[in-house]
Amino acid sequence: MALKQKLKHLLIIALVALPFLIGSCVQNKVAKQKSNLDISAFLAAASPDTIYPSAAQIDMLKKVMPEERFQPAPNISNRNYWNAIAKSTSGQEYLAKANSLLDRAPEVPISDSIYRRANKEGNRGIYKPRYYRTMDRLEHYVLGECLENKGRFLPQIQTYVDSIIAMKSWVHPNHDDGNNGILEGRRVSIDLGARKFGSVLAIASSLLDDKLPEDLHAEIASEIQRRITDTYLTSTKHADENNTWIDGTSNWNSVCTSGTVLATITNSNDYDKRLATIGSAINSMSHYLTGFGDDGYCSEGLGYWGYGFSHYLYLAQIVFDYSDGHIDMFKFDNPEKLKNVGNFPENFVIQDGRCAPFADGVSKTSSSGSNFANMLSAYHYDAILPTEIRMEEAAEQLIAWNHPALFEVSSQATVPELPSHTYFEDFGMVISRGKQQNPFSIALKAGHNDENHNHSDVGTYTLVLGGDVMSGDIGAPSYTAGAFSPKNPARSSWGHPIPRLNETLQSNGKAFKGVFLDTDFTANTDKVVVDIKPAYEFPALEILERTMSNDKSGSGTITIEDYFVASEPITFETAIMTLNSYEVVDNQTVILTSKHQKVKAEIKSEGFKVTIKDEQVPVKHLREGGPAFRIGIKANKAVNTGKIIIVYTPL
């Protein structure tokens, strides 16, 4: 019965939404005959020095873009649409949440002194949550009013909008400059917070129509124009200090661009600015997508894949809808790459939901937060279909209500049979999976030291037994003051299980990299050799190779071997990193113990003997928990050549 009821609700929503969507298509097709935008040709026509679209690109856009503003959903006066949504399960749940928040006061603006303190300390906790609680409530009030249409939410909506407009700065304090230039009004910039303020205000104005006073609509339009559209288009024309993310490859680009586009095409009455914004976004997304390998690898890790790619996909959906399907960013200029990106999560898992927390990634797949990227990846790229829908933003919820067919869920979880290994060749990362009853597996990366959310970590690895991470990368420091410093012990190569030469750590920059010299994957053993010498500025170093082998027989044996040759005697050191309990038995044996598992690390050497020095990583807050420990393994004398070998076996 539950399934039949759900299907009935989906059918009602689809039938109500269909005239809205078809009507828009018919209107635009009558106005002008359109062909689909060839994105490859569009990108080829771009100006070489700016994100702003060239004259040729503008001409191409005029052939596919409507002249009217974007309507993200029917406005509140369309009661057939909204009453049908209100009867659906998701509509009822959304309204219930909105009602539960109805008496909450906005938490912005807050004092300039708190803003300055948050900026100086890098303290997100005293400011950022207030942003997002305020925005979450406003989103629910707006859509709640559309669902109910009784006027109960309108006073709060006006109060919240007034509070947001009164804010001197829409950016998070830690994204302002050291002199608080945005707070002080010397410049205007868009960040992860500002784009959300702009998009939610645009949705409110568009959907609520005459339910809001005309002067409030005018204030919203003016603020979005000043704080979003104008600063964005200025930055696309020439590089400035305000929106440096527009040609970036990280999640910032997709997140800020998606909010900027939604706010602008919904709010702006200027056709040319809407064209320029869409054109700039397409040019900008060509940069964002270069942050992924052609094999789909995301160096930012799984959490940022979900955050960044979900916003790319919601951008793709609103542009697809706005252009009546004539601009298809789901394929962009490389459909195969987009498919690989969409399937990254299942390919990145080591086993039992565990993955490598490289860079600022996470070691466990999340069961909370938005899974919008997973839903649309299942539809467009044949990725695994989720068993539930989780939304975090009003824009996502509106897309789901407008397109119910895109958001079907699976009745039961699909657990794919993972291959014995996965090799992301573009960025240089290998997952070698044991197939034992209690699988013993490893992920090892080469990469380079200028990746998104970069750590100095060429050669790092993550060792997993069953469902527990036993050794290897300790993940990211929490985002407080100093978290992004290359000298942060959890971010520098000191805080990773990689070599140190004469106390020299790895250097930062794209040239400092690792290169896979050899890969050999068989049924019983995986073996790879990585040249990590280029990651160091160390003239005396002639060879530095890391070999990983995974013998999958029995309970498994994973070996990490570091071999070096230098033109002069050097001191050599590597490390075992762990977040678990451990015992240093002697200079050749360390026992690592997690909640459910135990692993022995046997240490061997050639050319010298080794000593062990263990110490706690001096970082108070790690995203993986903590405390973390560095078990340093150091040669007892300087030599020209030698090896340190760590052999891990389950106990």
TrEMBL record:
Cleavable signal peptide: none
Entry's transmembrane regions: none
Gene3D superfamilies reported for this sequence: 2.70.98.70, Chondroitin AC/alginate lyase (1.50.10.100)
Domain of life: Bacteria
Protein name: Heparinase
Organism: Formosa algae
